[in-house]
Amino acid sequence: MSPHAEKSAAPAAVARPAPQTRRRRGAALERALLDAALAELTEKGYSGLTIESVAARARTSRAVLYRRWATKPALVQAALAHARTKEPVEIPDTGSLRGDMIELLRRTSRSRARIGALVLLQLSAYFAETGTGPAELREIFLPTDRANAFDTVVLRAVDRGEIDPARLTPRIVAVPMDLLRQELMMTLRPVPDEAIASIIDEVFLPLVRPGVDGGYEKGRPEAALAHDEEVAPKGFEPSLPP
Fold first, then answer.
1. Nearest to 52 by CA among 75, 29, 31
2. How far is CA 98 from the centre of its chain?
3. Shortest CA distance to 48 belongs to which of 102, 113, 121?
4. Which of 15, 31, 56, 180 to pair with 232, CA 20 to 30 A apart?
5. What is the mean pLDDT of the segment spanning 224-234?
6. Distance CA 63, CA 13 (A)
7. Any alpha helices (H) in 68-217, and if so which ranges?
């Protein structure tokens, strides 16, 4: 071969090693699995979701899933619990009990409406298979830090003198979220602002504000029957008609 031909020859390609796929472990792997399960559930519903389809979407094996969740219902429950952690609800600080509670319910409503629709529209086969209903999945409608959020808002209000601490019971503190969750499950949409204001103004605030009778209106002993015994005044005995 002439020197001229050697100069014009193309240089030999240098072989490069194939890129290595980073192996997922621990929490990163579990998040990927639950993200895949949630995507399958949203797109196909419970009936269309399979362990095989979740494994394929997550690019892993069925054995990896079965080591964590022995059954399909267990995987779905974990995926729903995972969904709520993806949209944490921040604790508002408006300077007043009413403002904080309304904003907390508004933020919770926005983050939980999608999950509520998913539960009721895509899980009919799940309920049939497990013999349960939406009530058994009630916790997915609550923020994971709900207790901390409500405790913070309530304690601020106690410090400001907006709440009579003697009126506080676990049932009363749970009332706003219980009513919000009911609205979400009935409409599958974010709760309107006017409904949230009604929950706070007409139900919650009268139960906790200092100097407010909490619904035990004079001359209306039957009003007390709508409340739990633990919030009734000591010694209260309604006079019912014979």
1. 75
2. 22
3. 121
4. 180
5. 38
6. 41
7. 72-85, 97-122, 124-130, 146-160, 170-187, 193-198, 205-208
Cα–Cα distance measured from residue 98 to residue 199, given in angstroms and rounded to the nearest whole number:
11
Q: Provide mean pLDDT across the span 218-228.
A: 35
Tokens of 126: 């799940």
Whole-angstrom Cα distance, residue 174 to residue 171?
A: 5
Contact 117, 110 (CB under 8 A): no
Angle at 102 between CA 79 and CA 138, to 5 degrees: 30
Are 56 and 91 within one domain? no
pLDDT exceeds 70 at position 215:
no
Q: Check whether 81 has a pLDDT greater than 70.
A: yes
Contacts for 119 with CB less than 8 Å, ≥ 6 apart: 80, 134, 137, 140
Token pair belonging to 34: 């639950």
Identify whether residues 108 and 184 lie together within a single domain: yes
> Residue 141 has what pLDDT?
54
- What pLDDT is recorded for position 231? 39
> Residue 228: its pLDDT value, please?
38
Q: Say what the pTM is.
A: 0.61
Looking at the structure, do residues 121 and 203 belong to the same domain, yes or no?
yes
CA 36-39-40 angle, to 5 degrees, is: 85
Closest CA relative to residue 59, chosen from 85, 27, 35: 35
